[in-house]
Task: inverse folding
């Protein structure tokens, strides 16, 4: 009898999302958001590699917008996680050692003879943010690769490699350019070859693959949602251009932690050391009380994404929004609390 009770408890733990109370609370939370025009988006949750929850909310409030289960979201900087995986695949194959200097590819960039591939992956390069010039975002309209490179060179570096950690869009756009040099093909083709096809993803693509069924970004004003100007995504290839459903993103991160995409030792390199690092080499740390997740976030002007995975419980959560009124991090923290049946407060929507 004692062993039967233990088995039942283990089964309940393993199937946390099969409990009606969790699904009901998730539905209640998203219905509250939807009813109060608190946001537009989708939440997908996977457990042991299988989807156990999926819900879209708010999109019916968009006038004249048609969408379906295959409509994708711009996932912004979650793209960097993909770029890091692709780089580390080359590292595994011995084609791009982590200590390779940036000068091997782009010698005109300041400090390139000191900056390594590893520095660029982990945001310790000292490189800056090419998307900001003279204090403003200048990549809203199409610009050339030469213009982007000129800005990176002009910005230079703000510190020596390994001196500290500072999030760098410039480092990742350069990693994308290095991938294209190594493969002799476009980033979108590399993504399709190394990620989309092997994982049998149906709704996951880089911008030059020309995804069409993708939500635009919206802002809430005067009681309704209105479309807002998006980023020109061809300016941020490899940095923030991928469009995907939340389901496909969950497949990617689950496959990553199941060692389908890279080997265990390489994954260990990606993952930040808890208590010592907020950033690893392509993955960030997300802590919610005792629940530790790894993943990546993405934010542009109107679209935001959070993709996180808890290796202990084999739970992945993906939240994507193309119109928010509740801050993305608050929204996701509430989702995590509901999943783990912890107390939380409904956000105030003004």
Result:
């Amino acid at each position: 009898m004692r062993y039967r009770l233990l088995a039942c408890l283990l089964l309940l733990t393993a199937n946390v999302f099969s409990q009606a109370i969790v699904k009901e609370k998730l539905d209640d939370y998203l219905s509250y958001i939807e009813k109060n025009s608190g946001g537009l988006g989708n939440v997908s949750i996977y457990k042991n590699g299988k989807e156990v929850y999926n819900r879209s909310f708010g999109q019916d409030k968009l006038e004249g917008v048609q969408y379906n289960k295959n409509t994708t979201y711009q996932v912004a900087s979650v793209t960097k996680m993909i770029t890091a995986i692709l780089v580390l695949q080359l590292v595994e194959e011995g084609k791009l050692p982590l200590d390779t200097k940036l000068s091997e590819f782009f010698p005109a960039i300041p400090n390139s003879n000191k900056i390594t591939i590893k520095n660029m992956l982990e945001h310790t390069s000292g490189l800056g943010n090419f998307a900001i010039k003279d204090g403003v975002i200048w990549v809203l309209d199409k610009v050339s690769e030469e213009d982007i490179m000129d800005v990176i060179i002009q910005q230079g570096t703000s510190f020596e490699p390994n001196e500290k950690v500072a999030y760098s869009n410039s480092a990742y756009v350069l990693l994308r350019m290095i991938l294209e040099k190594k493969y002799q093909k476009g980033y979108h083709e590399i993504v399709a070859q190394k990620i989309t096809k092997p994982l049998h993803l149906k709704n996951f693509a880089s911008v030059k693959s020309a995804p069409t069924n993708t939500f635009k970004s919206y802002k809430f004003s005067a009681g309704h949602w209105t479309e807002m100007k998006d980023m020109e995504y061809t300016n941020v290839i490899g940095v923030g251009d991928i469009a995907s459903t939340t389901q496909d993103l969950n497949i990617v991160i689950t496959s990553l932690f199941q060692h389908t995409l890279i080997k265990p030792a390489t994954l260990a390199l990606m993952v930040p050391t808890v208590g010592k690092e907020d950033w690893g080499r392509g993955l960030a740390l997300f802590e919610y009380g005792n629940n530790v997740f790894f993943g990546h976030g993405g934010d542009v002007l109107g679209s935001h994404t959070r993709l996180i995975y808890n290796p202990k419980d084999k739970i992945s959560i993906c939240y994507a929004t193309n119109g928010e009124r509740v801050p993305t991090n608050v929204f996701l923290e509430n989702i995590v609390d509901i999943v783990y049946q912890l107390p939380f407060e409904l956000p105030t929507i003004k």
